[in-house]
Specification:
heterodimer, A: 374 residues, alpha/beta, Rossmann fold, five-stranded parallel sheet, 13 strands, 39% helix, globular, B: 86 residues, alpha+beta, SH3 type barrels, five-stranded antiparallel sheet, elongated
Chain lengths: 374, 86
């Protein structure tokens, strides 16, 4: 293969039709072999970026009948509890504060029907940024204003925000803060698996979360729960190969933690990111949509960095808030149902006028099904 | 939201790099990959490089795909998936 290094990352082979057709044929054989154990094989893609990659490639309609891919609790906006969404909106209501956020949070509605997008239209200073470093730069440029970053996400995003907070501390910034509504993937898997009614036969593990945490934190899934796991990349061939690796584990009856995405994911993850994470944050309880507040499933600011906690700085209390009426987002996140089974799907709930966060977020399961079909 | 994109470090000063994403250049922090050097490929998420990528491992993955699935083209195209045209 005489290609430049850059071409290897962007090679057309990652989406090659012949290779994909062969992988799908292999999948058909493996599903038939796995079917001996009875019924449909249910795998869960935990990551919202996988949900979108699967939907956008159109491969779902080529999957064998006996295989079902469920979307898991891996869309950060979707898993953020209604109570935490209300806290975000409460921060935006503080006079003079500049809210900075990733675009995905803009249209999620609070329990009173408000969202950041509509608040911005009415004049609230809310800015969509590409990186939390943009928010730190804004705080430096506007020393008279308080700049709040809306930190949500998993182990991929938390270190990036830790990095921005550490830079703000080095610069001595007193007008920068962030929320820490972070969730952890391995405890989320444990939450799913500890429910005896779960029907998950394997996890397609998130590539970029794993680039940070490595493989070891998943060990319990294969050992304690005997459920196959494959860390998978995001190209169509990565996904097809990842599914086939999961199927092979099901057929052989030997669950393990395998790494299809070894070009980005090392067994030990990223030690520098892990170190920064443990300095800026500590493991804490987190509030999940449809699950509730659960011990040791998220991250909060550590003692040394608690001065950067926006929720503490502005005294924003937490109160439980109900899910939008009729919305099945919570059940969808737990892999208990698929978007088209929701009575609101495509009727009163569409991306233009979304009821629940799974339709609001660009990587929510409902948004993916609505845009690309099943 | 956990989207991350590979790019090449074209220059760096301390832990601030300029990264080339197929012609589009952006400032990227190397705070999370202190070992990264000029000309390295990095995986970038929200303004931070989160991992150094090895082109030879990408090539190895593609070779594996070709080994596992390459030989089966004919078989795949005459099988139940013949509607998936190459």
């Amino acid at each position: 293969m005489k290609t430049s290094p850059a071409e290897r990352f962007a090679s057309p082979l990652w989406r090659d039709r012949k290779l994909a057709a062969a992988a799908l044929a292999e999948m058909e054989r493996l599903v038939a072999a796995a079917g001996k154990t009875g019924g449909t094989v249910n795998f869960m893609e935990v990551c919202g970026t996988h949900t979108m990659a699967i939907a956008a490639s159109g491969m779902r309609r080529l999957f064998p009948k006996g295989l079902r891919m469920l979307s898991g609790p891996g869309c950060p906006v979707c898993v953020t509890s209604q109570g935490d969404i209300d806290r975000v909106l409460a921060l935006a209501e503080i006079p003079g504060v500049i809210i900075t956020t990733f675009g995905d949070m803009m249209k999620v509605k609070g329990s009173k029907g408000l969202d950041l997008h509509s608040m911005r239209e009415k004049g609230t200073d809310i800015r969509v940024v590409y990186s939390p470093l943009d928010a730190v730069a804004l705080a430096e440029a506007e020393p008279e204003r308080q700049v709040v970053f809306i930190g949500v996400g998993f182990e991929t995003t938390a270190p990036v925000i830790a990095g921005a907070v550490a830079r703000a501390q080095k610069a001595g910034l007193k007008n920068f803060s962030s929320t820490a509504f972070f969730k952890l993937v391995p405890p989320a898997l444990e939450l799913l698996l500890s429910d005896p009614t779960n029907r998950i036969h394997g996890f397609m593990l998130p590539g970029h979360v794993s680039a940070i945490i490595g493989l070891e934190p998943y060990r319990f899934v294969a050992e304690k729960y005997k459920v196959p796991c494959v860390v998978t990349g995001f190209e169509p061939m990565d996904i097809l190969a990842g599914i086939n690796m999961l199927l092979k584990q099901v057929v052989s009856g030997r669950p393990a933690i395998e790494d299809e995405y070894f070009r980005a994911v090392k067994a030990g993850g990223n030690p520098a990111a892990q170190k920064l994470l443990s300095e800026v944050f500590k493991v804490s309880e987190a509030s999940w949509r449809a699950i509730g507040t659960v011990k040791a499933t998220g991250l909060a600011f550590s003692k040394a960095y608690e001065g950067f906690d926006a929720v503490k700085r502005f005294h924003i209390p937490y109160s439980d808030a109900p899910e939008p009426r009729g919305c099945l987002c919570g059940k969808i996140l737990l892999g208990k149902t698929l978007p088209p089974d929701c009575p609101l799907f495509g009727k009163s709930c569409t991306p233009a006028s979304a009821v629940g966060p799974c339709m609001v977020s660009s990587e929510g399961a409902c948004a993916a099904w609505f845009k690309y079909g099943g | 939201m956990c989207l991350a994109v590979p790019g090449k470090i074209t220059s760096l000063k301390n832990s601030n790099a300029e990264v080339d994403f197929n012609g589009v250049k952006r400032a990227v922090s190397l705070d999370l990959v202190p070992e990264a050097k000029k000309n390295d490929y990095v995986l970038v998420h929200a303004g931070f490089a989160i991992q150094v990528l090895e082109p030879k491992e990408a090539e190895e993955t593609l070779k594996l795909f070709a080994e596992i699935y390459g030989k089966e083209h004919q078989d795949a195209l005459s099988g139940p998936l013949s509607h998936v045209k190459p």
